[in-house]
UniProtKB/TrEMBL annotation:
Belongs to the cytochrome P450 family. It is found in: Mitochondrion inner membrane. It is a peripheral membrane protein. InterPro entries: CYP11_CYP27_families, Cyt_P450, Cyt_P450_CS, Cyt_P450_E_grp-IV, Cyt_P450_sf. Gene3D superfamilies: Cytochrome P450. Its cofactor is heme. Keywords: Heme, Iron, Membrane, Metal-binding, Monooxygenase, Oxidoreductase, Transit peptide. Pfam families: p450. This is Cytochrome P450 family 27 subfamily A member 1.
Length: 373
């Protein structure tokens, strides 16, 4: 446990599983990650409503009650299987095109980039029931502008966090930050408006029974424990969210024998904790089997429940967890069925760097070698 100061803020950093547990178990009914002021400023300026990331208290709770029903119940999330498989079909086609264009005929030079486009296409298809063309050879203009805006918003939010407010009218970062958000919102609004029009037209033509809300089949990964273990082990070594946080707003709390006043900002160092050798023996090595009950009954018994929590914890945990898990399972299963995957020799050693989320420090080139049928 140690304290750091970032600008006017004081952070209490926690890097052990028992300490994380102490904070998380005292987080209360309406947990707060951080105040999200920067995001809220944009919504306030444009008169837009807050979403699950930005809102707090009872309003957040009510929003989650509704969204959890459609996104987190395993049976509900499984309904997205067919939509995801459709996006995976496009992904496999795009992957093949890129392979064919490479000099060896089997190489993809930047996997993270391709996975990013896949994830964006998948979540937009689920949320808006519209394909946005991220996996087409030539990406539609408005989609390309949307993707650029996500990057623009994140890049400039760094300046907006660390530079004083009086620099906003003088330097270009603030306008770029707001422009990024405005394009993101208008892209989303266009898709929602289109969908509403379709529903209205269906209602007029056929009445309430005619409205088709997506209904997909359920697929079961219960018989693929190793596949799930590989994903868990990957997220242990490379947690997408390497650092998370909580502010306990309701009361002062005791952590590690110290008493902290309410509104203390705790930083939860998940990346460090999930490489703790006292919880995960040989923590730097990739051992999916450590997650399989039968193969390691002894070690599984000592794993701390807060050793690796890639989707966070409690009522404020990741809303997209079930969708993300299903997405990764379906895609990995399909890729492994068709290809043997090896690192492209020129890639060399890849390290991870924290850019809000964890990303590779260089392009990851992979070779996809066709398996014999
Ligand atoms: C591998 C993929 C993903 C990982 C590892 C991940 C991880 C996380 C983590 C660690 C948090 C913070 C939880 C906490 O504070 O306890 C979070 C929050 C959140 N995630 Fe994810 N996430 C993933 C994918 C997604 C997807 C695909 C969606 C969208 C459907 C999504 C939507 C959200 C939302 C809305 C929140 C904020 C929830 C709230 O504050 O109530 N995530 N995620």
């Amino acid at each position: 446990m140690w304290v750091t100061h970032v600008g006017p803020q004081t952070h209490v950093n926690l890097a052990s599983a028992p300490l994380l547990e102490q904070v998380m178990r005292q987080e209360g009914k309406y947990p707060v990650r951080n105040d999200m002021d920067l995001w809220k400023e944009h919504r306030d300026l444009q008169g837009l409503a807050y979403g699950p990331f930005t809102t707090q208290g009872h309003h957040w709770y009510q929003l989650r009650q509704v969204l959890n029903q459609r996104m987190l119940k395993p049976a509900e999330a499984a309904l997205y299987t067919d939509a995801l498989n459709e996006v995976i079909d496009s992904f496999m086609v795009r992957l093949n095109e890129i392979r064919a264009e490479s000099s060896s005929g089997d190489q993809v030079p930047d996997m993270a980039h391709l996975f990013y486009y896949f994830a964006l296409e998948a979540i937009c298809y689920i949320l808006f029931e519209k394909r946005i063309g991220c996996l087409e050879r030539s990406i539609p203009q408005d989609t390309a502008a949307f993707v650029r805006s996500v990057g623009l918003m994140f890049q400039n939010s760094l300046y907006a966090t660390f530079l004083p407010k009086w620099t906003r009218p003088l330097l270009p970062f603030w306008k770029r930050y707001l422009d990024g958000w405005n394009t993101i919102f208008s892209f989303g609004k266009k898709l929602i408006d289109q969908k509403l029009k379709e529903i209205e037209a269906q209602l007029q033509a056929e009445g309430p029974e005619g409205v088709q809300i997506s209904g997909y089949r359920h697929k079961d990964f219960a018989h693929m424990p190793l596949l799930k273990a590989v994903l868990k082990e990957t997220l242990r070594l490379y947690p997408v969210v390497p650092i998370n946080s909580r502010v306990i707003v309701e009361k002062e709390i005791e952590v590690g024998g110290f008493l902290f006043p309410k509104n203390t900002q705790f930083v939860l160092c998940h990346y460090v904790v999930s490489r703790d050798p006292s919880i995960f023996p040989e923590p730097e090595s990739f051992q999916p089997h450590r997650w399989l009950k039968k193969s390691q009954p002894d070690t599984l018994g000592v794993q701390h429940p807060f050793g690796s929590v890639p989707f966070g914890y409690g009522v404020r945990a990741c809303l997209g967890r079930r969708i993300a898990e299903l997405e990764m399972q379906l895609l990995l299963a399909r890729l492994m069925q068709q290809y043997q995957v090896v690192l492209a020799p020129e890639t060399g050693e890849v390290k991870s760097v924290a850019r809000i989320v964890l990303v590779p420090n260089k392009n990851v080139g992979l070779r996809f070698l066709q398996r014999p049928c």
